[in-house]
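User: My collaborator and I are trying to settle a disagreement about how two of our proteins should look. Neither of us wants to argue from intuition anymore, so we agreed to look at predicted structures for both before our next call. Could you fold the first one, then the second, and keep them clearly separated?

Assistant: That sounds like a sensible way to settle it. I'll keep them separate. The first protein:
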Amino acid sequence: MRPTVPRNYATTDQSTITQWWGLRGRLVPTVLLRSGLAFDVLSVARPLADFVLNHATFRSNAGPVIYRPDRDRTYFMVTPREIPRYGFGSKPGEIELMPSGSWILVPPARVSNMARAEWLVTPEHVGGTVAKFEIVRDVLSLVVKARATSPIP
């Protein structure tokens, strides 16, 4: 990653970052990642995302997942690819296929006065790898199809 502001404001220096993050309560770091080269992002409404997170196929092939309480959205980090622009048969706005180059706010960034972005699946938990797009797509499709035949909210 490269800083997007001059070096006197942003750094990749490990000791500086450790010092900043060590100022608990006095400084809340804001970290942005840009999608496109290392990962792409599927933004999913939280109720639908909960079913994906609990699905055995996703759990055995998980990637990092971020939750933003201010938007009630869950962000699945997936392998980069040309993502088709359709919502898997979901309701409008439930699944957003974020364009390459989108900025993603990651924990512990503050998203409102009282809330912060949080990891639902941490990068450490999955060994720093992202989920395969096809797996997340297939699980989302299964959940959407299941909802069409049963009362999933």
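The second protein, kept apart from the first:
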Amino acid sequence: MREGSMARLTPEIKAFLEEQLRPAQRMKFCLYLATVDEQGVPNVVPVGSGQVLDEQTILLADNFMGKTRHNLERNPRAALAVADEGALEGYQLKGHAELVGSGPLLERVRQHMEEACRRFGISPPIVPRAAVVFRVEEVYALRPGPEAGKRVL
């Protein structure tokens, strides 16, 4: 796939992502965002909140991103890893991420975070600084065995 072209998540992959990103009964990290700085030094952070917007877009919240935000402002290339550790199943998504500091997407992540904070008894609630719109370009399998690391989209 050429750089900048979008991949469309299959119904199976989309359902997996929605299940893993669904607010759980307990806090857990199953989503990791990777970026690189100007010198190519990688940075990986756990992300506590994500939503599948459509077959090509994942919405994240910038709650505490420091290096990650700095990296995305200079280089939008990023990767997401979403995993169900118990089932040894997951996907790595590669693409571009855009920081959105106002508008309906920011309001959506703020509402999502407010609901999560209420559910988990976090007070005062965490207020996201920005929405992160991740556009999927490639998808790879994260599972043991012969399919490990193979491109699926």
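Some points you might bring to the call about the second protein. Residues 139 and 153 are 5 Å apart (CA to CA). The beta strands are 31-36, 42-46, 50-54, 57-62, 77-84, 89-100, 130-141.
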